[in-house]
Amino acid sequence: MVKKEKVPEEIVEEAKPQEPAGEAEVIEEEEAGQEEDLNAVLERLREEAKEAQDKLLRVAADFENQKKRLQREKEAAVKYAEENLIKEILPSIDNLERAMSQDSNSKDFGKQLLEGVELTRAGLMESLEKVGLKPLESVGKPFDPNYHEAMVMEPSKEVPEQRVKTEFEKGYMFKDRLLRAAKVIVSKGDVEE
């Protein structure tokens, strides 16, 4: 058996392969350079994050301002929604005032007044039709409880049963919705009482 001698630690240390002194300095410099690069990258990313946050805050503020502006515009539109209708009706009011200012002692006063009222009504209906109002035509039509309100049923030789004989009040549609049902007299037909 061969006896192993103990080798002092200094010799073991010397026996280990060592890096040349220049390479160690290069590694340290590379590590220092990488650390500086990481710090620069970190600083750049912080700046980008700050810019992104600023943009986000500006976009949020713009959105809120837009929302408030749209709300104000909506409120103004609702407040003044009838303005166009009023402008359309004003000429009819003017015509009524002219009719009322006619000389009542004139021999054609009644005829002129009637003509003025008829023209005013026609102008008013034209204005209202522009915004979507349409009169229901009921006389002679079949009675429909969705559009007619029967006030009375009367016998008639001229008008068939379950048809509108006369209107008390005209019915109106506003766009596609019933605004007011027509109040009508409905025929019972040729019935002897």
Question: Can you put this structure into words, describing what you see?
Answer:
The protein is an alpha+beta fold and about 190 residues long. Among the domains are: about 25-80; about 135-193, Nucleotide Exchange Factor Grpe, Chain A, domain 2 (Roll). It has helices at about 10-15, 20-80, 85-100, 110-130; strands at about 135, 150-155, 165-170, 170-175, 175-180, 180-190. The strands form 2 sheets. Strands 1-4-5 form a 3-stranded antiparallel beta sheet. A 3-stranded mixed beta sheet has the order 2-6-3, with no helix packed on it. A hairpin with a 2-residue loop joins strand 4 (about 170-175) and strand 5 (about 175-180). The longest helix is centred in the first third of the chain and has 59 residues, at about 20-80. It is elongated and about 140 Å long. The model has no long low-confidence stretch (mean pLDDT about 85).
- The rough form would be described as elongated
- How many strands? 6
How far apart, in Å, are the first and last alpha carbons? 149 Å
Percent of residues in helices comes to 40-55%
Q: Looking across the biggest beta sheet, what order are the strands in?
A: 1-4-5
Helix segment tally:
4
CATH topology of one domain: Nucleotide Exchange Factor Grpe, Chain A, domain 2
Largest sheet: 3 strands, antiparallel
Structural class: alpha+beta
Strand proportion, as a percent range, falls in 15-25%
CATH architectural type of one domain: Roll
CATH superfamily of one domain: Head domain of nucleotide exchange factor GrpE
Average pLDDT, all residues: 83
The CATH top-level class label of one domain: Mainly Beta
Low-confidence stretches: none
What's the helix-strand series? HHHHEEEEEE
> What Rg is obtained from the alpha carbons, in whole angstroms?
48 Å
